[in-house]
Queue: 3 jobs
Job 1
Amino acid sequence: MPPALARWLPRASVTVLVVTASLLAWKEGGGADARMPAPHVDVVEQPEDTTAGHGASAYEVTARLVDALGTAHLQVPSLAAAQPFVAPYWRKMHAPWSHLSGSAAQLGLTLAVRTSRGQEKQLAVPTKAGDTWVPQARIWNMNEGSFDQRECIFAPTPATLSFALDVPPRARLRLSPAVLTPVPLTTVFDVSVVDSGGGEQPLKHLRVAGADARKWIDLDLDLAPWGGHKVTLELRTSTDASAPDEKRWTLPLAEEASPDGGLENAPPVPPMSLALWGDPVVVAEQPTRVPYNVLWFVVDALRPDVAASLHDPAEDAAKLSAPRPPLDALLPSIPGLVPNIDRLVARGVHFTHAWSAGTWTRAGTLAMFSGERSSELGIDTRDWVLPPEPVARYYRPEPPMLPLLLWRVGADATAFVNNFFMAGYVPVGVDMGFERVTDHRYRTRDTDAIANDALAWLDGHKGDRFFLVVNTNSPHEPYDPPKDLLARIPRPPAGPRDAQVRAYMAEAAKDDAAIGRILDAVEAMGLTRSTLVVLTADHGETLSAAHDNIGFEDMPMRFHHAIGNFEETTRIPLVMALPGVLDGGRAVADRVRNIDIAPTVLELEGLEADPRMSGKSLLPLARGEKEPQPRVVVTEGRGTRGILWDRWHLVVHEGSTEDELYDLQDDPGERHDVAKRPANRDVVAELRARLTAALANVNAADAKDAPASATAPVVHLVFAGAGRAHRVSGTITAGDGKHGVTLAVAPLGVPGDVVRLDGPTASFSLSTAPDALVGLDLRVDPPGAPVAWKLYLDDSPWPDGATYAGPFGLPAVASRTGIAGDDARAEVYAASTPTVDPARDLGIFVTRDRPQSSPGAGSPANPTPEAAAAAKAAQTEMQQVLRQWGYAHGSH
């Protein structure tokens, strides 16, 4: 027996524990997805809530069966025969985020079931000419009704889907069977588990009568008996023609058969059942990978000055005393109008100068969920109806949509909305990365339906980690508020003179009541301390009589948005509340954007922002830190772009040299365009240059270069020469060339002049030492930006097999030539650098620290001295074992 193995065997059980603990620390501590530590939360006499912070237990998604279709065993003999019968149903698309091919791509769908009963109501819009415009539903997606969209598996009967699963402890299977269209058959759904010995255990037998189509039936099944075992999960669908269907059923897909929702051209009754498995996921109760739930309220077209708590009396006074006062561009402060928003403001942090990157719903919603302007995603803000090619480009690189990023780490991403732009199966919308979107599209009763659904969902998912969006729509025109809420608006001079403006404010009070119901439920469930609450709007609303003119495509500006690009059109409320982190009713006066919200949420969750995000986390501002220069506010509308800088607001029109310029200090209501004044020519030129730079995501000429953040993770490049002085040279490049990035390089063990830095590129030349380690420490901001290197050893290309990564110095796979993605970050993450022998080892050793946010003592990012010493000892011992077995470095 080799001496090394003899020494190791008595400690085998200890080493196994070390390996297990190390891998668990890698996965749960951030290596698997390059997480940052969440900001520390001080718990103050709130013992009822025990789910906040890293390590708390909650149900998280561990497997998505739609994603697993590519490796599943699929028996769907009727798939080809079923296609002609499902083809007329147009509220569907191939699952855009699962990257399936072949028959699996035909089975993986995102599909909306119309759950409202009765004939689908066709929307008709009166025009100024006295005509009526009837938008085609298949294009505009505007028909009245309720639509429950889920990720699902299409399983026309008969079908058997078999999935190989490693079942985690305390696991459950959640899925929602449905039948797409009524048929005179009973559809049978069977779920069973086959263990490794071939024994089959039925979990669920569900029979759905033909008339019970078009609704998802939520199931929650216990997988705990198979925890820790490999099993085969089988989902079967079949029909029972012998069982009489006593309920009435109608012709299939009748309302969906034609673009206008009519009954003509209804397809024949299919000979099989068009069965669906909705939202099929495995969840497990385990230490959470993200520390907080997110409850995100969006109130369409809500202006911040609707809420008394979001008024700044000093700023209001300055506006009213300006040479050109804002008149009705500034709403009066009405205490008590929206008490629940006021309550949230009092316990959170509110940003008093926040703007949307879009002047209308699709652009504003994309910006808030992606951290990028709509145009950066390739989705033009000029077109209502999107051409196929930019939509295909949008899906191809998997854009950094926050719901999608959070569902990748186990959170349940669900939305209850009135927002028809969030459906990807119509040309006016795109899928934004939610697993489920329930859309209640009504003029007045949508708010209650949305709130009721959200409350019922929370009750069933209060033990989960979730990202829940509640998007109401009442302040969006047309205005039709309840009379009791309209009575809250005082008559002039305390209230607005215009009846439409009073109705707008009353509509906001309607949505405020729904927000209060949901916040009360969260508190009653004991989830307040573990839930980040965000309240914002997709855009503002143009209410000023000074803006009662006609814009692009002859659309009116007043009581609308999209066309105008005024400050009142794009300024939004932004409130964030999280006990111990974002609290105390603090106000932040710096200008911010809704593209900054997604990076903020990711930082709070201990995740790094995608480097494509042009927004920046708001946490430094919330902590009172001062930034070297203001954030540039850019807004995109239909045919316009705007930039706010200093006291100026410039609006440029596509295809025109006619700019608008407003002096927000002298003219806060933007009633007087001063672009043509000779004295302002330089101002217009400067703001145009700043806008060009901002759209390209580069700094303006006078921008102060901010150093890489002190909290950015350090990438350590350590070189060992196996006892010889080797020449090591090369270049290191940060960023993708499209987004701004800062690179800082600090030499270790060599003179500082070995590195020459030119923006995001560094070139270097150094020599290894026979008995010492040398290297370079890199800081990159934003932290998730890719880093690539090209290396030479003694002026020859870097040898294969001489790059090692991570805490044990294992051969690098994903990080051989840089760190460009989650796989590479996971490979190099290490709490400390590996043990390297400069006299024996030859190569580069790459590790990456965890960013230091605001962790508490004893947290993974700031361990106690005892824990750090124990971890280092365990790592050293494990590395020795791996090295002796030939898995780690030391073979050169």
Job 2
Amino acid sequence: MKLQRLFFAGFLAVTVAACPGGLRLDLGNAFPCDFSEPEHLRDQPCVSVHPGEWVCGTDNLCRPNADEGLQSETPDPTVETPVLALPTLLQGPNVLVAADPGVRGQFLVWELGDAGPTLVSSNGTRLDRVSFPGFSGVPDELAMVGGLSGNALLVLRADGGVASGERGLTLAQDGGSFTVSLRPVRDGRLGLTPLTGVEALRVDRRPSPLSPGLSPISIVVNDGTAGESVRLTLPPLDPPLSYRPLDAGIAPPIPEEAQENAIADLRVVPRNLLESEPSPLANELFVPVALTRTGFYYRDFRTLDGGTEDHWIALNEEPVLFPNRSVRMRHSRSGAVWAAMVQVAGAQVLSTWLVDRGNPPRMVRAWDECVPCASEALAFTPAASGPTSVEVLCERSGQLPRQLVRITGVSANIDQRTGEFLCAAEPLPAPIELAEILLQPELGLRAMDDTIGDRLTLGGRHGQVWSGASLSELHPLSLDRVPLGLGTFEGAPMAVTDSYVAVPLSQNGMLAVPMSELLGGRATADRLPAASVGGVEGWAILETAELIRVQRSADASVSELDVDFGPQLEGAAGGPASGPFAGEAQVGPSGELRIIATAGDGLYQHLVGTLSGIPGEVVPELPQLTPEPGFPIRSLTLDRATPTRPDAGVKVRGYVVTSRNVFDFQLGGAPERWSQRQVPLPAGEPVEVWMDAPRSPLGRVGYRDGTVYTLPGGYLMAQRLPSADDGGVPRVLDFTNLNGYPVALTERGVFLSRRDPEPFPDGGSSRILIWDRLPLPAELAQRPDRFQRGRIESISQDAGVDPVSGRARTRQVLFLFSAHGYVYRLASSTDG
């Protein structure tokens, strides 16, 4: 036995001596690499044994080199001066905004520094700039009545007077023409004298009693009256527009002394929102509601015993005492809740009322008057649905940002400015970026349409336009935030956000379609977008774990877009799976469309067949793999090249990132089965996986510190990001791929990888990429918060045909999506 041991030891010594470089373990050199050394020194233990064949691997041991990094034929990207790509027209700031009361999505916007407003068509797709001859400066208020397909009344309030004009509009396929003429509204009480002393404009959703079928403009004047200027038919200059007070000519005066009971605000609503039995008169389906110093009145006009009765009726029996000036009034869409904001001792006081429908109707206090904000209340809306409440947008107080609150009653605390009780308020999640709303009363800037009582429209600093029935239900006209992901729609990018889908159907950029409009009766509070599906047109995943496909509607008269439902991704314990979600699609050799999705810690597959317009009709999908149970999958990519090889024996292959691990997965073999393998990589935090090219089998994984490794081999491809001036290393927020070159978005800017031009001492060159910081737009260079919540994407575009080979070429363009919806072009690269 002793002799055998001596023989084995001698054999081992001879074997080790015969092996160049010593004993190899798992195909690695026994002498580990030192990753603290520069690249040309680090590989020396491997190069000295296997010249040109072996390099240091991520396991700190030598391994055969594989060409998984940047391919030699890849052209260098072109770094460009940052250019704003979207929005194309409405770039702001918007100092005034008005909405058409009859059609959602029609807006009139006044941009600061522009010669005039921008008109937006009914579906938000078309924008045209219009100048107003003879009008200079910025008006105090803007109102709009009538559709854009015919004559419309545009009303501007400035310097205490009102100018209005008829607009004739002719649209052609390749453009449009606008003609605008302005003239003052004449005071019907004083002959042809222009109307002055105007406090507010109010737009009515009603046929006018004087002009059936037409919507009038209501005008509140500081002499305590309120009336209207009726929109006329062409020709626009004859007769002149005339102001007719509601309390002198259309209806008898309000019963009280004029000075005591001056009209502070006026709204016009359908009669059936107030009365249980509306008047049968065709032109009296709508009634004006006036807010005066002593309370609310409405005009009662009805037939009695063969005659007519025409008078104002007090709606409130409880006494109130409002100031004559600085009062605003709004109501809910149902007409059940009314609210007024009045100025008292330098603070706003909220008065909230409920309508008791009857004949006659009555208003009762919902709760006592209270102060809703520690600072200024910029806007308020009675809640459109749910329990009685009023939503208030409060201006920043001290160092605190703007806040959206829901008022539900009165608290026990006292406001020291007014002596009134503070309102009982609870914070509301803001549907938009509140700081972007251009509301600065101290500078005379108020981009808010207050002309319509049951809908709010706001303008933003960067061209945004938002509209909704209440503050918590505001939806944008175009993309106004960083998308959760990008898919494609009709060959162009489609953005998926947390509340809407933005499709490339607008002349301004991406048209934002809220889920309530997209899904119609199928919309629910939790059926919101969660992720896009890459590699296929129009697919997305909802928060309810349902796959949907967005496409053009077959009946455009009903809706521009339509949605079909696929399956729901079901959790292992039953019910919808939880997020985060991700999705990629591939088309198989036989033409089958296969969607690979992740939800929580599970990996799912769906072979697309028949879809349904009704959710829940397609059989749910169960998870196929759980790479790391209990740890959500954070990133997914598909290898679309390997499954197309006839000899691969693989139908699906890809990579996922979990907590701090990377797995490759595949579907294949005989019998066919799913399998997974953890990729051996260094410690750290992997952020994202992606493929070198759409049809490449080479993958990439990027780490939080900017380090990039190749897949499947795990070779170092890009070193970590350079340290900042303060010594810290930028943290990567997002990666993308620009024609093979990794790009990193960090808290300190955008970095593009490139080849290292410095040769080694022996004349060799590095295979590991280094990072360069890209120039940023001027507005972002000083505002890192604008891209800390940003996103970078590389989007393929048609680059024509190669004149030599005749091959179609593509160009990849690097875009940066910022927090306010701006999209910047930073770099590009054309395929070789």
Job 3
Amino acid sequence: MLGHTERLEPSAVQRSSSQLTGQRRTRSTRRGIRPALAGTAAVLLALSPIASSLSASKVKIFRMSGAESFLEGELDGLSLDPFGVLQLADRVERAVQLEQPYLLSAVALGDDWVVGTGNDGEVLRLGRDGGVERLFDAPEDQVLALLAEPDGSLLAATSPDGKVYRIGADGTSEVLVEPRERYVWALARDAAGRLLLATGNSGKLLRWDGEALETVFDSDDSHVRSLLARPDGSVLAGTAGEGLVLEIGADDSVRTLYDAAQPEISAFAIGGSGEVYAAALASEGSQVELKPSGSSSSGSSGSSDDGSSSSPSDAPADAVAAGSRPTGFKGARSEVLRIEPDGSVEPIWSFDQETVFSMLWQGRLWAGTGMDGKLYSYRAGQMVLEQEVEELQIVAILPSSASSPAFATTNAAAVYRPAGERRPSGSATSKVLDAGAMARFGSLHWQGEIPQGSSLSFRFRSGVSPNPDRTWSQWTGERSAGVGRSGELSLDGLPRGRYVQWQAIVTGGGGDDPSLSTVELSYLQENRKPRITELTVLAPGQILVPSNFNPGNQAFEPNHPNRDGIFTTLGEGDESDRTKTLWKLGYRTLQWKADDPNDDQLEYRLSVRSAGAAPDTPWLEIADEIEDSYLSFDSTVLPDGLYRFKLTASDRPSNAEQGTEIAERTSEVVAVDHSAPVVGAVERRGGAFEVEVTDALSPLRQAQVSIDAGRWVDVAALDGLVDSRNERLRIEVPEGAQVVLLRLGDAAFNATTVDLLAVSPADGTVAEGRGGRGRPP
């Protein structure tokens, strides 16, 4: 007579471990609460004097400091110094405003400027007094390049039917060179006085000696885009396609100095010590269309989707310009390179969003960009914002007698010149700042230098939509920030909202120039309830442990009993971010997912009660102050039956008691079953047994037989499946068998084994059913 219970090692437990890899896990504890330190790059969690009137555990700070953060907003009349400090910009004045929208090229001619336009192909002379004189009206649509000659004449390169015109000082004009190329992108004179032409679509560098036109270099790229003739007789050429910087020697030898990640070299400038600067582009705003829609590579003069002058005149009306930014390109839109006289090349600056259209050396390197019409200079190893104008692109920078250059813009076409003095005032408007939820705004703290006689003031607005619209509050009146090196303002009266903007107004006066280096704005999110998105009850016996736990056998014993109640739970783990699944008979595990709209730290409480209990029946606490996203506990303290579990999530660790929010979620009905299946009536008919098997709570999952200590063999139910709480089994038994062991297991992994010969009479009558001597877990 044999009878015993045993532990099953279900394959389902082993398989489930892979499903839990990577689960977020923090340290479970019932002692103490760690402070929340969560944050993002744009939000600095801090405790500061400006937060004294708010709940210190939840105050967050928008902090703007340095060039990158200020450039995300809008500047008007302010520039950035090499250290990212805002100060009043040099004043520039719009000397000439043109009716034509597109200005493609510009050059200084004596005391005046000459510009080439797009869509109408005009060459205009602009006087310093604002007068405009038309010098030439080309048959072609675009004047892409201009070159001033020593005798006062001009050379103008046109497209899309590429030609070079000579415009005399007396107003006469003639075709000087007809290269039979679609585009002439740049003109230059080499050291010998010969005319160089950078062309496309064939990508050739051509040379005109006054009588014959010859090809100096035929590039594999579609365009030779830019040119610079050096005093030593060599020439630098930039291509569009592969983005190569080429050096053509005085003997016409060619070598590649640099292969840029960006596909276009748009501009050159020669520095004060013989070094050369180059701009490499991968931009939708480029004038070169490397991948036009429905045609071969082409140039451009219209307006692209992003507002730049980059829509080919001969492209279909519905063509979409791609510029020189390849599909999928992830790098910076512009990169500035420094080329030393020995040919070595070094990137010195990159613009993630700006397109460098033009460069000039005047005391230092200057760069004109789009898409927001910004003029930068390179100082102390930094690109410093000097000017920002309302026109979209600065396409040419022109020398001037002042410390800063003049410059020409397009979209719309204008020429600006330095006024030789500081602007009297300027403003900086922050980008729209997102609090992540409805919030109350507390204080603003600033740092800088506001001397006596100068002033700094702020105004604010807030809203619920991400873009300022008529649903936002109106700008508040200006609030004086005082003078000195720092100060603070209360934001009382500013309506609550999810989004906020500030605007600083800086006014000069007295001796020293004012500056602004840091702005911090505090806010307090309205506390919102946590969200429990998932509550799962794992299979009986499954437990979660830290992934680095490696016991000698696959059973995790508790570190210590729970002395606060009857439930024994798994003890404190480590700070591992991963878990794995093991097996422990009699244990149950609940696992959950939860988050908090305020990014608060959460703690959890787990409770249980009978599934049939009245609604006002108290819940029995299993554990509290849980920081993990799961809990494994010894369920043998619960009698067999049906239960529900309740998970409560609280944001108490991150909030004062009066501000705590909680969320609750109740599990589905869970069977707690520690009893093995029971063998009922057993009937022997000839060489077979028919056995009735029942289980109080769980369906059967396993029925196997072993005859005379032979291997275990699955037993079939009469209905075909062993899958319910009541089954009738048929077992074939050979004549003369001495021991017939029936092993049964249920879905709760309770198991029992009985000897059928010990419970079945030999004459074939039905015997009283009995269970094996099962050992409950």
